[in-house]
Amino acid sequence: MSTATATTLRAGGRTVAHCVTRPALAADHSPRPYLHPVTTLAGRAVTEVLPEDHVHHLGVSVAVPDVGGHNFWGGRTFVRGRGPVELDNHGVQRHDGFKLCDPDGFVEELTWTAGGERLLAEHRTVAAVALTDTAWALDLTFSVANVSGRDLSIGSPATNGRPGAAYGGFFWRAPKEASAPGVFGPDADGEEAVHGARADWVAMCGDGWTLVFAGATATTRRDPWFVRAAEYPGVGSSLAYGERLAVPAGGTFVRRVVTVVADGRLDRDGAAALVRRAVAS
């Protein structure tokens, strides 16, 4: 695979994100398209790739640790009764092409393959929308169809026996800074309070930046948030929190997450106002 930055995204007349479609990565990183760097309108980077603490974290991506036993997240696989195990079970999300590619967004077709088998076909829509002079929104929708010809299910380390580790789905890896970021929701403060919560949105604030993640459909809002701040800064929307997500043969699941990317540190009222504007736009 060759590395190819296929497109850039612009909002408010400024480049705010780069999409890497065919990254040259080791198989155990579960190669997949990702967005990095993503920046605020002032140019501050708010994503990180290949960090030392989790070298398979790739900016903004859709990553799933267990699709019918195949790892599309990267790194070790959590096995019930054994813990994290290095397995030769990693999949690849192959970029098949763009159906549309404009400065403010694109529509991408992908195929999820593992062990030489085509498991899932994905239709992904990404758009950048200017909100204010200091904030814009990344609108990402993924529609994933089971094309394997048999029933599949999606799991996480949590559904495989590791409590609280329900990562898998939309995931945003933020940059690690000298101090852990602040996190809060509509009516909660701190990592412990927002992790695992079902809330319309969750915010993460770092050194001069704020990210506000919002479930933009009723189905997406039912997925609990996966939040890490003390160990590393990352936020995801959990497809398989308490139980596996069944994807029958020929079935499709769809999720939409809108992320406000703002300069400065927003308070709760400011975050809520920008989320309302972003989701309505």
Q: Please indicate the percent range of residues in DSSP E strands (runs of 2 or more).
A: over 45%
Radius of gyration: 17 Å
Helical content class: under 10%
Secondary structure: number of strands: 20
In DSSP terms, counting alpha (H) and pi (I) runs of 4 or more, how many helices? Answer: 3
Mean pLDDT over the full residue set: 96
Name the shape in a single word: globular
Ends apart, CA distance between termini: 36 Å
List the uncertain runs: 1-5
Taking the sheet with the most strands, its summary is: 8 strands, antiparallel
Strand order of the largest sheet: 8-9-10-11-20-16-15-14
What does this protein look like?
The protein has 281 residues and is mainly beta. The chain is built from 3 helices and 20 strands. It has helices at 191-194, 218-221, 268-280; strands at 5-11, 14-20, 34-38, 60-67, 70-72, 77-79, 83-85, 92-102, 105-114, 117-130, 135-146, 152-155, 169-173, 182-184, 201-205, 209-215, 225-228, 234-237, 245-247, 252-263. The strands form 4 sheets. The chain has an 8-stranded antiparallel sheet. Strands 4, 5, 12, 13, 17, 18 and 19 form a 7-stranded antiparallel sheet that branches. Strands 1-2-3 form a 3-stranded antiparallel sheet, with no helix packed on it. Strand 6 and strand 7 (83-85) form a beta hairpin. The longest helix is centred in the C-terminal third of the chain and has 13 residues, at 268-280. It is globular. The model is unreliable at 1-5 (pLDDT under 50).
